[in-house]
Amino acid sequence: MPHPRFDPLAGVRAADAPPVDVFVSGTVFLDIIFTGLARTPQPGTEEWADGMASCPGGIANLAIAARRLGLRTALASAFSDDDYGDFCWRTMESGEHIDLTHSRRFHDWHSPVTVSMSVERDRTMVTHGHPPPISPAEFIGCPPRSAAVLIDLAEHVDGELPTWVRQARSQGSLLFADVGWDATQRWDPGVLDRLDSVHAFFPNAAEAMAYTRTATAQDALYAIADRVPLAVVTRGSEGALAIDATSAEEAAVPALRVDALDPTGAGDVFGAALTLGTLAHWPLRDRLSFASLCSALAIQQFGGSLAAPGWGDIADWWRVARARREGTAYESSVARRYAFLDAIVPTLPESACRRATATIARRADVEGLG
Ligand SMILES: Nc1ncnc2c1ncn2[C@@H]1O[C@H](COP(=O)(O)OP(=O)(O)OP(=O)(O)O)[C@@H](O)[C@H]1O
Ligand SMILES: [Mg+2]
Question: I need a labelling partner for 101 at 20 to 30 A (CA). Which of 45, 73, 159, 236 fits?
């Protein structure tokens, strides 16, 4: 894997550190995103959209978010050998420098596709796909040594985490788990039994309260903290709460005040940034603030993986936020909270990754990206 232009873990990486920082597995979709529609298309009509972008989606969002933050990221996924599969593979491997050694191409199987339409701030999606001939859980075999593995807690085999996840754990990987909305509304508390070997769990408040049968985000956090060393509950525009038992820290941070154009995927970017901060041994408050910043930068742009910020975007933001430290009371509070970036931003190379890189821009035609 080529070295990232900026390695945020350079200072903490031991000589015998695993070759991979973050290993993830899941389904990659080809996402086609239409933006700026005046209304949701009605039966029998055709609408013209102002903007359009194509990008790898699904698990690619998480992998790309982690990689743009400089984490050495490896993905195990099934890719078709059709043109959409070529595009997703090329974008991730050559454009984003994600290690696909553990991914596989399949011949008699086509790429899963999602068409997403954004009207106002709501997204409507249509998806088509079939399960791959062999699932990643079967073809991963022994996972690579990695500092962290990011998983979806709801994904399981007979109620247990997949074998490769347990193997990664026994090789020393820290497990970071998210969970999604349960469309069945059963919120089976048995899902939480899978937290046994998990290091960090970061559901949103609605999911956390539903699974733990609690009435507030704070109580859900306490219930989760009984089960994992690092418990985090995200609260959308209200920020995030966390408890880290390994360092005896408890923290709550507000969200940044931004115009949330497309909140989809905030959770993925948050998780990637939280993982980075934890691997870098940052204080809990800085980790939460950093994750909130990265997700706030992402939701101001359209389009899943295209919107994930790189260090260049973070540096641009900090230069402006820092210059406004004597502005309004809100602006000074932001500058105080993010002062830890002063130790990082000046060390960034000029070429630090920005999301509107040529690779992406050539393939995107979305306001703010193209
Ligand atoms: N409207 C917003 N304004 C500012 N920050 C936001 C907003 N929405 C989300 N965030 C940031 O993103 C983080 C994660 O968002 P949220 O709690 O909505 O997760 P989620 O529901 O898991 O997201 P996803 O829809 O991607 O699964 C929040 O803690 C916050 O820092
Ligand atoms: Mg989520």
Answer: 159
Return the percent helix, strand and coil in the chain, to nearest 5.
35, 20, 40
Residue-level pLDDT at 1? 47
10-residue block means of pLDDT along the chain (370 residues)? 72 94 97 88 91 92 96 98 97 96 96 91 89 93 96 86 95 96 93 95 98 98 98 97 98 96 88 98 98 96 87 95 97 98 88 60 39
In a domain, 9, yes or no: no
Write the residue with the smallest CA distance to atom 19 of ligand 1.
267
Structurally, how many domains does the chain consist of? Answer: 1
Per-residue pLDDT at 65: 97
Q: Separation of 207 CA from ligand 2 center, angstroms?
A: 8
Distance CA 202, CA 101 (A): 28
Q: Residue 248's domain is classified under what CATH number?
A: 3.40.1190.20
Number of CB atoms found within 10 A of residue 357's CB: 16
Ligand 1 is surrounded, with C-beta below 6 A, by 204, 234-237, 239-240, 255-256, 258, 260, 263-268, 270, 292, 295-296, 299
Nearest-angstrom CA–CA distance, 271 and 174: 13
Q: What is the pLDDT of residue 58?
A: 95
Q: Are 225 and 243 in contact (CB under 8 A)?
A: yes
Question: Amino acid identity of 47?
Answer: E
Which is the closest atom of ligand 1 to the Cα of 181? 27
Domain range enclosing 85 = 20-364
Q: Note whether residue 8 is domain-resident.
A: no
pLDDT the model gives residue 302: 80
Count of CB atoms situated within 10 Å of the CB of 162:
20
Ligand that lies nearest to the alpha carbon of residue 235, given by its number in the listed order: 1
What letters, b where the CB count within 10 A reaches 16 and e where it falls short, cover 254-293? bbbeeebbbebbbbbbbbbbbbbbbbbebebbbbbbbbbb
Cβ atoms of 57 and 81 within 8 Å: the answer is no
